[in-house]
Amino acid sequence: MRKLRFISSIRTKFALTLFLIIAVVLVLMNTYFMTASRDVIFRSKKDLVQRQASVITTSLEDLFDELTVNDVARVMEVLDVTGVTHVVILDVEGNILYGSVENHLQRDFPPNYVSRALEGFDLFYTRFSEGSFFSSALAPVMTRNAAIGLVYVHETDYEQGTIILDMQGTLRNISIIVAVFSVYLVVIIIWSVMRRITSIFNAIKTVREGEYNYHIKMGGRDELALLGDEFNRLTDRLRETDEVRRRFVADASHELKTPLASIRLLSDSILQNEGIERLTVQEFIGDIGTEAERLSRTTEKLMTLTRLDSKIMDEKTDVDMRDAITATLRMLRPLAAGNEVTIESELMEGCRVLATEDAIHQIVFNLIENAIKYNKPGGNVSVTLFAEADEIVFAVDDTGVGIPDEDLPHVFDRFYRVDKARSREAGGSGLGLSIVKGAVEEFNGTVSASRRDDGGMRFQVRLRALDRVE
After folding, report:
1. Tens digit of pLDDT for each residue in 394-418?
2. In whole angstroms, what is the distance from residue 34 CA to residue 39 CA?
3. Taking the complete model, does pTM exceed 0.85, yes or no?
4. Is residue 445, in this structure, part of any structural domain at all?
5. N or C: lower Cβ tally within 10 Å for the chain?
6. 273 and 334 inside one domain
7. How many domains does the chain have?
């Protein structure tokens, strides 16, 4: 028997899966939104500083062929540079012509970047650090395709940095709350689901021990509730099957015990009476033979029922119902003559079914034999066969004593006999109609029993016609 390990249990897998999903969602919420927000601010800062640098370089390029401190100062006096933090203007030698924050320039743009800007390239640098956005732009002042200076624009934004930090803290707090609530919710869900699964598991073990009356109580309307309902229906079916099995074994034992006891009694009578007459011995031996025949018939019918229960059937073939009924009537006419019963038949030609010859023989033989045995002297048995729509209908009517209404629902039960004394007298075992029902249902047909208005019984079998069988 397999042992349940913690790492392989559904509970562990379910919990790990949910925790992983929650962790991924929280990580994405704390990284993606923050990254996306910073990227939006970075783009806005880039536009700001580059636009400001472009305005300054354009103003200087349009007025001068060479930059001086005084010329740059006059231009910067009329330009609006309040949107940025620092502006530094340098000549090609690196001398500061305007501004005094060279340390920012060296930090943001190393010498190799400055050289690249002098070649005519616009450069941009931004970073988020210590709760602030730092954005810088370096643009060359070009005249006649040659650089005559550099414009460095820097902007430090503490306010939006503070907003980002506040958002980050808020998301972190929300993530903690969501994580705690999610863990609590996951634990509750797993506990609820596993408690119900465990109850089903324990119920299965209880039923496995033979307690078929056990029912599980499963609330809700989900799949586990449906599983609980199916389990209860299964235990009901098992209980019914077990009751039928026990009754079948008891009835079979009783049916076999009766002829065996008679045989033993008769044989003991012969052995214990040394002076018994020859005619008496012959009579006893004849009775032993009769009981042996009854025992043989009972065991044969039990074997037939066993084959039907096990679904052990010969391969289905094309069976002509008219031929099968005709052959069976030839066998049973002597029995009918001995019981002073008249047999009439009306059999339509071309009534073919997909079945086995042995099963059809069992159906026809048992129904007609019962109609003869349980008829009245001078009675009549009518056998009809005809096609109706896509079905073949086989019916047996008799003029016997019939079956009481309260017994009709049980006539196809195993070992069930309406008149036990008369059944034993007629040699019946209570298995014939059970065999009929089992064989008919094997071919997806139906069999019914009903009382006739003028007395007697009518048994009717319906099977699918061969040309309609798929």
Report:
1. 999 999 878 887 888 778 776 665 5
2. 9
3. no
4. yes
5. N
6. no
7. 3
